[in-house]
Design goal:
The complex is a heterodimer of chains A (264) and B (85). Chain A has 264 residues and is α/β, with parallel strands linked by helices. In chain A, 39% of the residues lie in helices and 18% in strands. Chain A has one domain: Rossmann fold (3-Layer(aba) Sandwich). Chain A has a seven-stranded mixed sheet with strand order 3-2-4-5-7-6-8, sandwiched between helices. Chain B has one domain: Alpha-Beta Plaits (2-Layer Sandwich), CATH 3.30.70. Chain B has a two-stranded antiparallel ribbon with strand order 1-4. A two-stranded antiparallel sheet of chain B has the order 2-3. The chains are: A alpha/beta (264), B alpha+beta (85). The structure holds thiamine diphosphate and iron/sulfur cluster (SF4) (2 copies).
Amino acid sequence: MATGQDIPPDMEPVYQYPESLTSRFTHYCPGCTHGVIHRLIAEVIDELGIRERTVGVAPVGCAVLAYDYFNLDFCEAAHGRAPAMATGIKRVSPDTVVFTYQGDGDLAAIGTAEIIHAANRGELITTIFVNNAIYGMTGGQMAPTTLPGQVTTSSPGGRDVRMAGWPIKMAELIGVLPGAAYVTRQAVLDVPGIRRAKQAIRLAFRVQLAGLGFSMVEILSTCNTNWGLSPLEALEWAKAHMVPYYPLGDTKVADAVRALMEQA
Amino acid sequence: MTAKGMVIIDENRCKGCGLCLAVCPVHILKLADGRFNTRGYRPVEITDPEACTGCAMCAIICPDVVFTVYRRRARRGQPAPPPTG
Ligand SMILES: Cc1ncc(C[n+]2csc(CCOP(=O)(O)OP(=O)(O)O)c2C)c(N)n1
Ligand code: SF4
Ligand code: SF4
């Protein structure tokens, strides 16, 4: 943290280390946007003043150690089961603010049933869904979200949709469920997008605080290591290839959420 | 000391990914040459601290929370606007 440098008295802090993050050095690859998403969640929790009553549920995937990085109460769920665990925590302890943090392998493959039913039941939880179009942790295999033609270690000739089906659009799928109050897709691929993603995360938590229903923010993220690109090239690749297939924006804004948005 | 802004770099958190270099609007960030941090990465350095505007773009893109950013108060008693939000 801040070293012995002197801060002139008329300088005001405009960015400081969030209290909701521990000082641990993350194991994420250099330039991996999992780190950006962690930071945004922590900033939102700080700004909403809910750190002491928030419980996170970590996934299996590269974010498996998220509990070490957030300065919050945290649980670790079995692969894909974070929404089920979050449901239990929220139901027995309704005053807690509960969120899951899940990758696309976790949420859209092995955990598809859990997320769909949690959303459909309108559980008062928030899901942060990190879509990087690949299984990062296990070595870059094809995920349900892998793009048509995308080369991965398990689709060396590119994803063949006749064999493997089409990349699954979770924000659209969850958005049609009546229990889902707020569902949106954002991206952390440039500064304006990161700012918008933070606004969306804040709204998702506010939806939970207001008891309006299930909320989910899908976030297009990078895995430069398994995409075989530099961190900067990965941002550009995601903009060029992921954003056209996975359009950004809200897929569900319930009327009550719209009213909440107007309250600023 | 006329700089509009100031960054403090927690260099041992830096992984040398280079993302901040690409977004700094005044191009004053670079990776160290021939010098490594405790994790073995080339940490980010600031080349011209006087040119920093305190925009906090570097802090917004950095996945590893390396930067603390300060901005000079525009007028006495007037708080600087928040960077994100
Ligand atoms: C029950 C079970 N099946 C399979 C695995 C192997 N596994 C670990 S992480 C993972 C997928 C991770 O991908 P994703 O959720 O997209 O997260 P990322 O690593 O990309 O952030 C798989 C299949 C496991 N740990 N447990
Ligand atoms: S393997 Fe991919 S998702 Fe995992 S930490 Fe590295 S860049 Fe991030
Ligand atoms: S974005 Fe952060 S981790 Fe990457 S080079 Fe800049 S300071 Fe280092």
